[in-house]
Structure formats: C-alpha cells, structure tokens
Amino acid sequence: MPLNYKHLALAGIAAIMAPVILISTGQTSDHADTPQIVQNPGTDITDVYLFPSKQNNGHVVLAMNVNPLIGPGQGATTYFDPNVLYQFKIDTTGDFVEDLVIQARFTAKGPNQQVMLYGPSRPSVTGSENVSLPGTPSVGSINTTIRGRQGIKIFAGAREDSFFFDLERFFAILPDRATPLTGIDVPNPNEPQLTSWRAPGEAVDFLSNGGYNVLSIVLEMPKSMLGTKLGSKPGVISVWTTTSVPNGSVWTQRDRLARPVVNEVFATVANNRHKINNETSPVQDSGELRNDILGFMTFPAGRSEAIRNIIAAVLVPDVMTADLNAKGAAYLGFETGGATGGKFGGRALEDDVVDISLGVVFGTTISDLLLAPADGNQIPTLTSDNVGAGGKHFTNSFPYLGSPR
To answer: Per DSSP, what are the bridge partners of residue 160?
Structure first.
C-alpha cells in the first residue's frame, strides 16, 4: 500500500491538542471542553484508543476514557454516571454513519456498581439521537475483568489518565480553551498570548505530575465481530465515541470524540463552537468543523491556502480509522501506509499525538512531504510541547492502561 502522505500530514493536526486537562477545578480540555461538560463530568470523553490486542493476534482493543481529573487515591470511590449512555460507534462501509454500535450502561453509584454492555449490534437509529440496543447484555462488577458474551473481554473502572501533555502551557498560549474552567471569556479567542512551549526539562506533564486518573471502558474482542457483516472478515473501520443523556424516549448526544483533540484545538469555546461540534455526527463535519479548521489555520497559524486545505481534507470527518487486517497500531498509520509506525492505524497508548499534530500545524511537515509548497510561516517554538510518555505506566496485559494512582 503506497504512502498516502496527503492524508498523513493532515490527520496529524488532529492531535495538536490531545485532550487537555484543567488545572485546578477538576476538569480538562477534551478534558472539560465546554461549560456544559464541566457541569456533567460523567459525559466528558477525554481519549479514545484503537489497537491490536497485545495478547491475542485475532483480537482488537477499543478504549474510552471519561470523567477526568480524579485525584490520587480517589479512583476506588469514583463511579460511572448511571444516567449516561456510553457508546462506541463503528462505520464498516466508509460512509461515516455507524453500522455497528456498542453501548455501556451502569447501575446506581456505589461500591457494587455494575456495567451492562450491549452489542456490537446494528442500530435502529443513527446520528446524535439514539435508542437503547435490544438483547441480553454482558454484566459484571466495575474495576474487574469481565468475560462477556461472544468472546468479549470487558473492563470498566478507574485507571491512570493515559494522556500526556503540557496542559498548563497550552492554556497560557490559548486562554480561550480554559474558559469552561475559569469562567473568563476571552475577547479574541484564537489569539495566542504566548508563542512558545516550555523548554525540554522545564515542560510539565500536568496529569502525570498530579497523579490524576480517569474512568475507562476497555473492550477486547475478536476482530471478526467488527467485520463489514457480523462474523465476516474484518476490514477497514472508522470509530468514534459518544456520551448521551436521557431526553424523553431517546438519548441525546452531549460529547463526541475520535481523533485526539481536533475539536479542542481548532474550535473556540467562544460562540459555542466546541459545544456544536460535540453534539453533531461525523457526516456533519464538512460544514462547521471544516470551517473551524480552516479558520484556525488562517489565524493564528497563518498557513498558506494550500496547506490549510490539505489539513482540512484529512481531519474531516473526525473519525479514527484502522485496517484490522494490518499490524502495528500508530496514530495516522493507516493514512500514511505505516510511515508513523504501523499500517493498522488507530491509536496506541504510547503515541505522541501532540507532537505529530504540532509539527503539521506549526512546522514543515506538509512541505517536507511535498504536499504543498513551503510557506515560510512555520513557528519552530510551537512544534513540540517537550512532554513524552515517561510518566505513564502502561502494561502489556488487559486492560493495558496503568493502575489508578
């Protein structure tokens, strides 16, 4: 498969802001990206991962982190919101409409809380309003490994927050993105207040240093369950996650996440840009989200029209794509034919999605790949946040995310 550098460079941008975390209030960027999400942290999706099982070659892992900024020692007494519907949505046909859905629901909060997992099944309703899947769920206690129906392995409970990023510096660069936490409106929301990250040795991995945790839903299942038809040979899939709340006879979407931090970087909190994108579906991204990306790449990024258009072409719609027949999870690996580490694509826990994205947005990645002429407008001091995964404790066995701090 030849390298698709056009798709590569552009998808990279998405990571420019992998979920950002709040500083003192208890929320984060995708980690707490809107005032509405801050008020209901159970709906806050912070990260999504998609990678081959490290223990079984025929299986794939899907993971969703929610409810950020759980302090050290508090994981065992933090519970999922029983009034939220958590969903993995999977497109198997390339039209960016969900063909399969996996739903997680939870019983009342408390030490005996249980998870009920439905699917993967074909939904009767698609889009931003959904109904509960029928059938018999897999059921088990939180914070334990559950052997579910049809060979699915399930974990739902507290884990170390897997995201690494200099959050504090990001908020200093773009204060608008901290508005849900500070309550302070920023008059010019896309105008940076600083033009550099902290130097190596001075950069701070806020989540690791603070010992913060999240609630994780981790699933490991046979790849064949995600084929074009249930039980068929697996192929290329696109995945996104949602959280929804009750609204009469349906569940109404409150948050959506796939690629790390597309919405958090490109969409302003001002004018409810984050909120609008959170509550829509991938098929709608060609309008609002595309305009957000093009606007940000014009100002403050200051990039040429050619570079702006390439970035928008890859990031819209906002889904995470993987080839289940390939090996080696790597962010943008599918789009680049393996240039970023593996042709499977998706996102591995260790992927430095922030630096990949910063290089695309503020660096010379696109012109280096001959996708567009160099525009001379790169900002070298913004191409790396100088934070790596060294503060994390990932494992080689299920559920793969580190134990809660």
So the answer is: 213
CA–CA gap between residue 245 and residue 86 (Å, rounded): 9
Phi, psi dihedrals of residue 158, rounded to the nearest 5°: -75, 140
CA 62 to chain centre: 11
pTM equals 0.90
131-158 tens-digit pLDDT: 999 999 999 999 999 999 989 999 999 9
Considering only CA atoms, which of 341, 333, 384 is closest in space to residue 165? 384
2 CB burial (10 A radius; 0-12, 13-18, 19+): exposed
Spatial CA neighbour of 13 closest among 295, 338, 332: 332
Q: Where are the domains of the chain?
A: 5-387
Neighbour-count burial of 360, counting CB atoms closer than 10 A to its CB (0-12 exposed, 13-18 middle, 19+ buried): buried
Tokens coding 43:
């709906």
Q: Distance from CA of residue 377 to its chain's centroid?
A: 28
Amino acid at 223: K
What number is the average pLDDT over the span 120-135?
97
SS3 annotation, the chain: CCCCHHHHHHHHHHHHHCCCECCCCCCECCCCCCHHHHHCHHHCEEEEEEEECCCCCCEEEEEEEEEEEECCCCHHHCCCCCCCEEEEEEECCCCCCCCEEEEEEECCCCCCCEEEEEEEECCCCCCCEECCCCCCCEEEECCCEEECHHHCEEEEEEEECCCCCCHHHHHHHCHHHHHHHHCCCCCCCCCCCCCCCCCCCCCCCHHHHCCCEEEEEEEEEEHHHHCCCCCCCCCEEEEEEEEEEEECCEEEEEEEECCCCHHHHHCCCHHHHHHHHHCCCHHHCCCHHHHHHHHHHHCCCCCCHHHHHHHHHHHCCCCEEEECCCCCECCCCCCCCCCCCCCCECECCCCCHHHHHHHHHHCCHHHHCCCCCCCCCCCHHHCCCCCCHHHCCCCCCCCCCCCCC
pLDDT of amino acid 172: 92
